[in-house]
Structures are given as structure tokens and as C-alpha cells.
TrEMBL record:
It holds the Pfam family adh_short. InterPro entries: NAD(P)-bd_dom_sf (IPR036291), SDR_fam (IPR002347), VLCFA-Steroid_DH (IPR051019). Keywords: Membrane, Oxidoreductase, Transmembrane, Transmembrane helix. The keyword Membrane applies. The chain crosses the membrane at residues 36-61. PANTHER family: INACTIVE HYDROXYSTEROID DEHYDROGENASE-LIKE PROTEIN 1, RH59310P. It comes from the Eukaryota. This is Inactive hydroxysteroid dehydrogenase-like protein 1.
Amino acid sequence: MRGDGGMQDATLHDRLARRGNMMDLEGFQLFPYPNAFLNGIVLVGLLSVLKFFTVTTWNLAVGLRAHVWSKLRNKNFVETYGRWAVVTGSSDGIGKGYAYELAKKGMNLLLISRTMEKLQKIKEEIEKEFGVEVEIMQVDFSHGKQCTRDRGTRERKGVNNVAVIVPHPMNFGEVSEHQLWSHVNVNVASPLAMTRMILPGMLERDKGAIVNIASIYGRYPVPMVQVYSATKVSTGWERRWK
């Protein structure tokens, strides 16, 4: 008898517990406070959490696409973009790295930089290691219109990497007129001019790609390098061109 009574008590307890949970759920309110200010704080918190998860998910997807999916695809660059690529600022840093990677993919290169000795050395190294054709051109983009020289339309992939920045952090009033126009010519005008030069051939063949190397400085104003930060904004927005 006690056993049966215990089972009945347990069953009754479970029913009451479920009923209590239902009552709690029915009484739930998204904004439980009568004070509008407190409810506003709750709303801000919910939106912040939603933004955090959205941004985190997006960044994770972008990272997987860039570092995992791109390697799994094993794309044939020559078939996709064409035989030739032009890379500015290719004697050092990111531009040099792009030159080697594109050569590794079997693409011939037109390398542009202001230092002929470095260009010649890179040309010899790439031709020896990868067996592709490499042409070099010495251009100082800080002087303006030199990059508008017509090289034909065979370049079907362009990497606008060349950039200039002040030699050390300085106040805007300390930036010379020469440094100011160098930033404008190199960071703003040269990507536009190079794109204008090689784009017609890409459109004619319906094949090619243009890569603009942007900077985090172009997304957020950075003190003491204001001119560089302002001019790199244009490179970040060029990806939205139609």
C-alpha cells in the first residue's frame, strides 16, 4: 500500500512540477520591467548578443572560405584568369609574395616596382624556380602618370599592391606637400590607373580578376598616420565597383 501511495505521490508531484513550469513559461515576458529605461537596457543587451553571434559566424565562414575551401578547390589559375598577371609593388613584402604564388600557379608575370635591381633579382629567381615568363618595369608611382603607359591587354589578373606610408608617425601639420601628393598618387591614383589600363582586355575576353590590397588603416582612422589612413579608404571601397 505504501508503495502504491508513494507512486501516486510521485505522479502528483510530477504533475504539479509540469504545471508550475507551464505557469512560469506562460508568465514569461521579454521586457519584464515597468521602467522603460531598464527595458531599453535589456533590448540593447539582446541586440549586442545577436550582433556578436552574427559577426562571429560571418568571420568564421570567411576564414573557412579563405583558408580551407580555397585549398580544397585547387583552382586552375591559367584557365580561370588567363596566362598573364601584373603585380605592382612586387619587389618586397606582400607584392613579392603574390608574385611567387602566381608563378607557382603557372602564370607569367609583369612585375612593376621602382627598384630595378630588386626586380631583376626576383625575375631571375622566379624564372629559374618556376619556368614562367617574367617581364619587369621600373615605375615610381609617386610621380603620377607613369603607370598609364600602354602595355597591351594580355594581363588578365591584376594585383594592386603598391602603397606608401610616412616614414614615422607624425602630426598632420608635419606632413610635407611632397609626402601628401605621394600618398595620393600611390595609394589612390595608381590602383585606379592600373585598373583602367588592364580592365578593357579582361572585359573583351570575359576573363580575369583584379585584387586590391587594402589595409585595416583604411577602415578605422589612425592617429599620426592620418594621410595614409585617409588614402587607403579608397582601396577598400574599390571592391564595391560595378
